[in-house]
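Chain A, query sequence.
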Amino acid sequence: MERLMPTLFGIFTAIMFLNVLWDGFPTLPVLYGVITAASLLFGRACLMSRALPDSQASKQVPAEVRWKWCRVLGILYLLNAALCPLGFLLWYVVRFDSDLILGAQMLGFFIICFASLIPTFHRARA
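Chain A, predicted structure.
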């Protein structure tokens, strides 16, 4: 999981530069693919490792809580990855702005990333 974050940051940086340097660059389809792939990879990493990233705060959380929370995060990431294909299937039935799918998926991705901090906040207050 430690390698996924720098890779994701590098991909977003490359998309930004390609968008500036190449006039016909298909930004939205690439972003759909990147967010869906990142959600799949993060979900798989959470379900396979079953441990929160090592930090001083997460080491103070009991192992059973970390294991259960990582499983929940993995499922949430996989649900976020399913949002894009299901959104486009819904788009064929009910016409709406398809950029809402990307916005919801990106917002969901970052909310899930911040949700990984919840066990450490609960432990800090106790």
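The chain has one domain: 4-125. The radius of gyration is 17 Å.
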